[in-house]
Amino acid sequence: MQTGTGGSDSGAMADDVPARNGLRARLHDIMAGLSLASMNIPQVLGYTRIAAMPAVTGLYTVLLPLVAFACFGASKHLVVAADSATAAIFSSAVGRMATPGSAHYMALVSMVALLSAGFLLVARLFRLGFLADFLSRTVLVGFLAGVGLQVALAMTRDMLGITTTAHNPVLQLFQTLSQLAYVNVPTLLLSGCIVAIIMAGDRLTPRAPLALVTVVGTIVASMTCGLSRFGIETIGPIAGGLPRLSIPDVSWNDMLALLPSTTSCVFVIIAQSAATSRAFAQRFHDPVDDNADILGLCAANAAAGLSGTFTVNGSPTQTAMAVRAGGRSQLAQLTFAIVTMLVLVFLTAPLQYLPRCVLASIVFTVALGMIDLRAMAAIRRESPGEFGLALVTAAAVVGIGVEQGIFLAIALSLFRHVRHSYEPHTMILRRDGQSGLLEPYDVRPGQQTAPGLIVYRFCADLFYANATRFAHDVRVLVDNAPTPVRCLVIDASAITDIDFSAASDLRDLFTALRGRHVTVIFGRVTPYLRADMDRHRITPVVGAANIHAQLHTAIAAAQQAMAGSDTPHP
């Protein structure tokens, strides 16, 4: 009886462990949501300056859109809210159609969000999430480093208490340096203290909600001591109240005029959100479902458009804030939304006393954390070429913009892949003197597998750009062979596809070899390759009997052919 009771107690205790761990994780997510709110609520208010919208609409971006993405998206970490890249895109376009801040302007901005939701729904139906597959880990590391550097440079102006007008980070840096003589010393000292507290706290107590403590503390200090007396700028008055759901009143012609800027926003939303969600999913070894995330982004933008605010996007900075605060699921984002609702109803009055430099200092420390120097060093150590790609990506994000940086990174990744396919590894197989097995060696003139026999391996699919390399290697080997070649065996293990142009080149090559009494035999031919060879009329040129599924049968056929012609064989 005692044994049975003890076993039951042990089982109950074992069952309690996952429950306690789950409760602890949920508590961490709730605390992360509180800390996230303290950092991000002021930040989204700042984005309204780029969007030329009322300050309260910044809070609306982290209310219903956050809930919508949490319900429909797949990423555990992605924070979907106001974003500077999309805000800059639509504000410049809509600003030419209506007076910024007017009722018509606000309706047009909300319609951009609704149209973005429609385009994202189409992207989900066509399963365009595969576009994110073109973002390699190297690109993601460079992308986040570039965003981190860009945001850090942008925050320095508020940390120093100066004003800049440029949107480009490089121009912002030059303007900041030119105005160092006008730095507000109290603002600089307060910013330095905030940065020191947060960075020291990250080392000593990484789980502590230091951002929340600093925000609350500085608001209290600003209310009681009047920090504005020392030239420390605060956020200022903010309207309160929950959003009203409605469809923007926009004409059909205006909707058509909004399509180009909406298309630009959608491309940035898909690329930036995918890059951000994948970067943090890889950090925590979580699964990725880009198509589900697109559906979540669709729902979030629909909620934004109906609630009178502007386009939302997956934010690298705010996602980094959530992760840094300890958030590991969308519960942190839902907590953020609840806090936002409470702020809208009860706390907009105290929020006006928050110093801008405190917000900038918090974001500055998060931005520095996005620059993963260890990952960059590992890439440089293992693959210098990919390290250059990461640097180019980071420089493009800083120099020309997030959206251009992402697309340039994708283009460079594809170019790198094409270059590898254009210059693939090619080998000749020769017997090893000790093992007697066929081993690969670099292709060089004067080499043979055996007298009269060449076994050649081409390590890529054949297409218009690399077919010349294939033909050149074969001609070099055949023309410079020490013994006249009777059989050429092609190890096609790495070839799964032949395009139209390459097939034409191969037919010409094999016809020329046949004229020189060289028999061409294929080994390790997959069904996919055989289908291409049949379709492109390569099979009749080499002969169906000379196409084999295994390499050893192809070599045996070559031996038999050479024996029949009294040619020595290996």
UniProtKB/TrEMBL annotation:
Q: What's a GO biological-process term for it?
A: transmembrane transport
The protein's predominant localisation is: membrane
In terms of PROSITE patterns, this protein maps to:
STAS
- Identify its membrane topology class: Multi-pass membrane protein
Domain annotation STAS: ranges: 443-558
* A Pfam family that the UniProt record links to this protein: STAS
Where in the cell does this protein reside?
A: Membrane
Record field: transmembrane: 50-71, 78-99, 105-126, 138-156, 176-198, 210-232, 252-275, 331-352, 358-377, 389-415
- Where on the tree of life does the source sit, at the highest rank? Bacteria
Q: Which GO terms describe its cellular component?
A: membrane
Q: Which UniProt keywords apply?
A: Membrane, Transmembrane, Transmembrane helix
Q: What name goes with this protein? A: Sodium-independent anion transporter
Species whose genome carries this gene: Komagataeibacter swingsii
- Native organism taxonomy: Bacteria, Pseudomonadati, Pseudomonadota, Alphaproteobacteria, Acetobacterales
